[in-house]
## 1
Amino acid sequence: MTAIQHRARRAVAEAIALGWEGPPFDMEVLASLRRLKLVVRSLGDSKREGLWMGATIILRPGLHKHRRPYVIAHEIVHSLLGKDQATTTKSEAGLLERVCQAGAAELLLPFHVMAGHCNGVPVCTSLIDSVEAAFGVSFEAAGRRCLELCSEPALFIVAVGAEHAARWGVRTIIGPAQLRISDLQVVRAYPSPSWTEGTAGLVGLPVPRTSVIQRSFSRATISRKLGATFRGEESWHIGCSQRQLTVEAAPRPAAGRPSAAIAVMQHSGGQATLFAPRPKPQSQ
Ligand SMILES: [Zn+2]
């Protein structure tokens, strides 16, 4: 476990001992338990959403209500690091932000509470849905955390219509002439710790039109039925190997329309679970 995970888990344990309850876990209450005052005011730099300054967390005005808890959690993690966060280079600063992102997940989706909520549950899109609803986080945060805590090789994918990929910071790599308006493009790929193939080349990849990821999204677009889950065996080129994978996909609605497709991919024949129970030692 990394040092920040350790500090974040200790902060969670201390807060729970003081009566902090969830899920969902209220980040504003956690901030006040840690004697951090929340102030909303302009931060000048338009990209910055929050800033930790001693006993204060400054939040940018107009933060979306779903974004605000994450930003507070992220800044609480900066406060936990305290003086241990001096960076001199751009890459060190980038690493620090990723550390704070990981620490924020520990606060929003605490390890032992997740263990109680989903121990031994197969990692699938409905688990991600239930974590999203119970913990009040985005589907991206829920999926990423589920995969982080998954004991088998698996991958969580988010795909959106190619015309929206830029909003996720992903370049559309094929020309408009070859692209249908309904084509999906992978914008996020989060592996579980035991996934060895890497994710190189996946982000930005157009989803094959025959994939269940594309089919689940197209079906939802046509029928407006958003709850359906699709499953299939597919061959994907990942890293430098061709892999036979079991893919389970579901559309994600926004304002009654499908806005993205999420998918869990795992080695064919495998069954990824969260915190899969360890085999008990044989009794003598
Ligand atoms: Zn930060």
## 2
Amino acid sequence: MPDTNTEKKNVPAPTLELLATLYTLDQLKSYVHDRPQIALAGRSNVGKSSLINALARRKKLAKVSSEPGKTRSVNLFEVKPDGFCLTDLPGYGYARRGHEERRSWAELIQNYLEKTPALRALALLIDCRIPTQESDRVMADFAKAHKLPVIPILTKADKCTLKERSAQMKTWERILGVKPVAVSSVSKLGIDELWARLREAGRIEEVEEAAVTAENAAENIESPASAE
Ligand SMILES: Nc1nc2c(ncn2[C@@H]2O[C@H](COP(=O)(O)OP(=O)(O)OP(=O)(O)O)[C@@H](O)[C@H]2O)c(=O)[nH]1
Ligand SMILES: [Mg+2]
């Protein structure tokens, strides 16, 4: 019998690399990227950027703040060696920002979600301590309407009791029909399980991989590496 524990240890942990930071609709529209993408969406302060750092096992890859409204851009991170991307989005539902700023973020999030054909899944982050919010239900409905698979993630699990957590698990499993993953970016609870779910959802099929390899080869022919 093979020792599965040893096998697991030998699988290299994925790393994350920042590919693009897009602040405006124009930047978003002109950034063409066909790799499969999984978006991290959720209310401001739910812990999206912290989760990117926990997944990457780095402290400052994505900007984090205790002040809601920290992330103002669409940030694409490539998962290596897998090849798909995780996208850190600005948060929604934060009332204290100016109307104009909130409108422009909402527009950016909506455009990204509606106009990214390579979007494979929505990782919907929900604070495990907060009762179900209308804005999260709207996001869940959006995913359903667009037939987008959802990976529900209950964040800040280190801050809630087991009882609270299991009640939230049940609620969101009922709403989405999918079992959530409870995570903590502080204690790292659930990070391995989440990686497994993300890698499954973002897996590049062989046909796609061949296309990407061909695309990369073509790029290298068109623009040989220069040492400027
Ligand atoms: N205890 C605890 N705190 C967390 C956890 N994840 C995030 N936080 C804290 O929550 C606050 C917000 O975290 P961010 O990662 O910036 O949240 P965000 O969802 O990216 O916020 P926006 O960019 O504003 O949308 C920070 O003070 C983090 O330190 C967690 O798992 N446990
Ligand atoms: Mg953020």
